């Protein structure tokens, strides 16, 4: 029987089984494909399983919220530490540079009197270069408008040559580091004479000239004293 079956298969040739869902001739879905069982679908949890899933989701949301809050707090902490560190550095630097201002004043006076020579000149220039690299800047120029935020008036007068309160002379340079003023520029201020008004202008001129010459204006007698004379 086996030999007969083998002979029959040899005579018949190879058997080809077509398992395509779509019939290539008609273009329709074959009956065998229609009757094939649908793939299994995931069943939605119900009962106790559904409650457990909801509980896990709630805990996950809480943990995520905690992590985000901790991350935000740590970021704010780092920013605060960096800001405090920069403020401490700026204060320490301002203190050190502030202690050096009298030395810089002496160097400036020596330069004005042409006494800045030799080794002292090299040391002075090195010191000025170092404080300049640290951010120290001098300010104050004769002829600039008077600004009480950066100027300190040590002398006051009236002048026809100015149209607004003006720093006509820099008595001592001001210094700042960044936006911080270490010392205001100490100046002599002149105001327009026209601000006094026409009635008091001559008298104010005389007082201003006396103050400029170092003379103390005479005190005006009171009305009662004049009457007694």
From TrEMBL:
Keyword set, alphabetical order: Chaperone, Cytoplasm, Stress response
Compositionally biased tracts (Basic and acidic residues): 1-33, 52-66, 202-219
Domain of life: Bacteria
Signal peptide: none
Broad class of where this protein is predominantly found: cytoplasm
Transmembrane segments: none
Keyword Chaperone belongs to the record: yes
Chain intervals with Acidic residues compositional bias: 220-229
Subcellular localization: Cytoplasm
Residue segments, region Disordered: 1-67, 186-229
InterPro entries: GrpE (IPR000740), GrpE_CC (IPR013805), GrpE_head (IPR009012)
Subunit structure: Homodimer.
Family, per entry: Belongs to the GrpE family.
Function description: Participates actively in the response to hyperosmotic and heat shock by preventing the aggregation of stress-denatured proteins, in association with DnaK and GrpE. It is the nucleotide exchange factor for DnaK and may function as a thermosensor. Unfolded proteins bind initially to DnaJ; upon interaction with the DnaJ-bound protein, DnaK hydrolyzes its bound ATP, resulting in the formation of a stable complex. GrpE releases ADP from DnaK; ATP binding to DnaK triggers the release of the substrate protein, thus completing the reaction cycle.
Entry protein name: Protein GrpE
Organism: Actinoallomurus vinaceus
Highest classification ranks of the organism: Bacteria, Bacillati, Actinomycetota, Actinomycetes, Streptosporangiales
């Amino acid at each position: 029987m086996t030999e007969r079956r083998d002979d029959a298969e040899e005579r018949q040739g190879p058997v080809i089984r077509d398992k395509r869902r779509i019939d290539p001739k008609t273009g329709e879905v074959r009956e065998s494909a229609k009757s094939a069982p649908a793939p299994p679908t995931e069943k939605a949890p119900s009962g106790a399983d559904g409650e457990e899933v909801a509980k896990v989701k709630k805990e996950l949301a809480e943990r995520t919220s905690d992590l985000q809050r901790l991350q935000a707090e740590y970021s704010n902490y780092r920013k605060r530490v960096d800001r405090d560190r920069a403020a401490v550095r700026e204060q320490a630097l301002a203190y050190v540079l502030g202690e050096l201002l009298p030395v810089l004043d002496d160097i400036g006076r020596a330069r004005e009197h042409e006494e800045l020579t030799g080794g002292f000149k090299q040391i002075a220039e090195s010191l000025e270069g170092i404080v300049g690299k640290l951010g120290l800047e001098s300010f104050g120029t004769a002829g600039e408008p008077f600004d009480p935020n950066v100027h300190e008036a040590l002398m006051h007068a009236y002048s026809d040559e100015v149209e607004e309160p003006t720093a006509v002379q820099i008595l001592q340079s001001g210094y700042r580091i960044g936006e911080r003023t270490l010392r205001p520029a100490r100046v002599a201020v002149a105001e327009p004479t026209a601000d006094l008004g026409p009635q008091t202008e001559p008298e104010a001129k005389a007082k201003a000239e006396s103050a400029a010459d170092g003379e103390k204006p005479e005190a005006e007698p009171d009305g009662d004293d004049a009457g007694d004379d």
